[in-house]
Amino acid sequence: MARIVMKFGGTSVGDISRIKNVAKRVQREVEAGNEVAVVVSAMSGTTNQLVAWTREISSLHDAREYDTVVATGEQVTVEVTKPSGETISFPTNHTFSDDQIEWFKAGSALNIIKARSGA
């Protein structure tokens, strides 16, 4: 058994057909007995559209509000990609428009996944 982090960019999850392909790839790894953490981007073109809408409304947008709007792209992809999976939220450094997931730096993201799986 291995721990695998699978990252899928916007093109890989660009439409429902591609999302189904991602789900099949993840399922194969799970069936092989691997612990799998899946990271997805917003569907292709979604982030650009959200950024454009935010800028069109106001060039003086609040950084926190901007991040909230732009993050919805990833949130949609997560929800349509995980038919029965668990979502784990990771705390960030709260630097709006330049967030860093602190746990990945320290390697503790996999420790959280391991603890939740009871392994």
Got a strand count? 2
- Which regions have little confidence, pLDDT < 50, spanning 5+ residues? none
Beta-sheet strand percentage?
5-15%
Helix/sheet category: mainly alpha
Structural overview:
With 119 residues, this protein is mainly alpha-helical. The protein has helices at 16-31, 46-57, 63-81, 102-106, 108-117; strands at residues 3-8, 35-40. A two-stranded parallel ribbon has the order 1-2. α1 links the parallel β1 (3-8) and β2. α2 (46-57) runs antiparallel to α3 (63-81). It is elongated, with a radius of gyration of 16 Å. The mean pLDDT is 78.
How would you sum up this structure in a few lines?
With 119 residues, the protein is mostly helical. Helix content is 52%, strand content 10%.
SSE map:
Elements lengths: L2 E6 L7 H16 L3 E6 L5 H12 L5 H19 L20 H5 L1 H10 L2
Helix pairs in contact: 2-3
Considering the chains and any ligands shown, give keywords for the structure.
10% strand; mainly alpha; 2 strands; 119 residues; two-stranded parallel sheet
